[in-house]
Amino acid sequence: MQVLAIDPKAEPERTSDEHMAHAGALTSSDALSDSTLIARTHARDQAAFSALYDRYSGIVYSVALRVVRDPATAEDLLHEIFMQLWRKPEQFEAARGSLGAWLAVITRNRAIDFIRRQKPQEDPEEVYLASPVDLQSEVERNTAMEKVQAVLKEMPESQRNAIQMAFFEGLTHSDIAAKTGEPLGTIKSRIRSALLAVRKAFE
Questions:
Q1: Could you report the per-residue pLDDT of 79-136, keeping only the tens digit for each?
Q2: Mean pLDDT across the chain, nearest whole number?
Q3: For 136-203, CATH number?
Q4: Which whole number is the average pLDDT over 25-36?
Q5: Where does the pLDDT of residue 77 fall: very low under 50, low under 70, confident under 90, or very high at 90 and above?
Q6: Are 145 and 104 within 8 A, CB to CB?
């Protein structure tokens, strides 16, 4: 997995003392909150951004790879997602949830968009579960996720687990059946019923 390279054009020059102070402030970056690192990234702090990359690149790559099933494409998506975070860190709103969950959702959506563009010749029942609405912005995606999570809380555990594996992990129906050891027909039925419940939340 390649390391993301950032254009340093926005990084101000520092004196030796400032460099030492800056380095010292970030030596404990693992202990800094996501909100603090996001704020520093917004100020074009490359060290803070690198800390976020180290913290979440594995999650982003894993989600992308789970959906596209191609390491090179997953790396491209990883690069796109973190370049988006570097350019527009303000898109993440801590009040709406964790940064890891937010990155996972936008990665999954971006990966599904890629799959759709490729027009795979697959059984529609086996295509990765799509978002129940056409989401035009990250804000709309966050709002949609809140609605989905509220509906999920009301579902039986077996049904909730099935749709979470499809929605958040990008697994096909066959993948879920193999993972849970349950009949494919049962998994399809659970996801179909769960989708109907989710869609009602957007009516």
A1: 999 999 999 998 887 776 788 888 888 898 888 888 877 755 544 344 444 444 444 4
A2: 75
A3: 1.10.10.10
A4: 68
A5: very high
A6: no
Give the relative orientation of helices 138-153 and 99-118 as an angle to the nearest 10 degrees: 110
Selection from 113, 97, 6, 133 nearest residue 64 by Cα? 113
Secondary structure of 47-89 in HEC code, one letter for each residue: HHHHHHHHHHHHHHHHHHHHHHCCHHHHHHHHHHHHHHHHHCH
Q: Is 171 exposed, middle or buried (0-12, 13-18, 19+ CB in 10 A)?
A: buried
Nearest to 196 by CA among 168, 165, 157, 154: 154
- Nearest Cα neighbor of 3 from 87, 68, 78 is 78
Residue matched to tokens 């958040």: 168
Mean pLDDT of 186-191: 89
**Helix ranges, 121-180 (H):** 138-153, 157-169, 173-180
Angle between helices 157-169 and 99-118 (to 10 degrees): 70
Pick the CATH number of 1-124 from 2.30.30.100, 3.20.20.80, 1.10.1740.10, 3.40.440.10: 1.10.1740.10
